[in-house]
Write a structure and sequence with these properties.
Elements lengths: L2 E7 L3 E6 L15 H12 L9 E2 L8 E7 L2 H12 L4 E9 L6 E8 L17 E13 L4 E8 L6 H8 L15 H4 L6 E9 L6 E5 L13 H13 L9 E2 L4 E4 L1
Length: about 260
């Protein structure tokens, strides 16, 4: 059974790595979801008699793996939600894409449909859509396979945003069954090669700026890229200041939840 790694926990916060394929919160499928699983973990771990409080302040698409922060108190939920509204909560993703972006770095701004049609979000005109903005940096390009490892900073949090915007520039994410052409190499993957790798926030009750990082290289979706070259690319990004470094950066799990 998959496990949910815990990167940080205190009285106000719970930071975990969501496995691909798990819902962020319940839907009508009845499948396991992160919110319910973590509520039960807190109930058992802290010996609570009733249901534990846990605030969901952001989501990840079901097929996407990576970092999520949950609020264990209403004060933390309110303050984290405010950070999201003010766009001060930092969300960094790493994707393995088909093709090569026209530029090594840039900002993508698109207008997307508010709701999916046949499961897909599409490009829309400014008056009918919602604004989607992200910045990206090319970390590595494999010329033989024509695949690119890309670091993405998410500025707005729209449904399927990264997946749609990369597809719109001709660089669909490897294994993305909704937005790629589903070549033989795409079909080999159980989930898209997209990982929520970095999460930066201000602690809701302290003055600490915290940054959490989860490498995507441990996941099968990224197996086709050279681990050695990818690690070198991540190290170079760190040296360039693209991945924060400082007194409070958390990379290693302190525990895990079996479900």
């Amino acid at each position: 059974m998959p496990k949910i790694p815990i990167l940080y926990e205190d009285n106000h916060l719970l930071v975990v790595v969501k496995p691909a394929g798990i819902l962020s919160q319940a839907d009508n499928s009845g499948d396991p979801d992160m919110l319910a699983l973590l509520k039960e973990y807190i109930r058992v771990n802290e010996g609570k008699k009733g249901e534990a409080f846990l605030g969901l302040v952001h989501r990840l698409d079901r097929p996407v793996s990576g970092l999520m922060v949950f609020a264990k108190t209403s004060k933390a939920a309110s303050r984290l939600s405010d950070q999201i509204r003010r766009r001060s909560l930092r969300r960094d993703y790493i994707a393995l894409c088909h093709g090569l972006p026209d530029k090594e770095s840039g900002v993508l701004i698109d207008y997307l449909t508010r709701k999916p049609l046949d499961g897909r979000v599409r490009s829309a005109c400014e008056h009918d859509g919602v604004k989607a903005e992200l910045s990206y940096k090319l970390l590595l390009h494999d010329y033989e396979l024509n695949r690119s490892l890309v670091l993405i900073r998410l500025d707005t949090g729209r449904r399927h945003q990264i997946r749609v915007q990369l597809a719109l520039i001709g660089c669909p994410i490897l294994g993305d069954y909704r937005y790629s052409d589903m070549t033989a190499s795409d079909k080999e993957l159980a989930s898209p090669a997209l990982h929520a790798a970095g999460l930066g926030l201000r602690h809701p009750t302290k003055t600490e700026e915290m940054y959490f990082f989860s490498s995507p290289l441990q996941y099968n979706s990224f197996a086709s890229v050279s681990t050695e070259k990818a690690e070198q690319a991540l190290l170079a990004a760190d040296k360039e200041g693209l991945i924060p470094a400082g007194e409070y950066i958390v990379q290693e799990a302190i525990g895990e939840i079996q479900y």
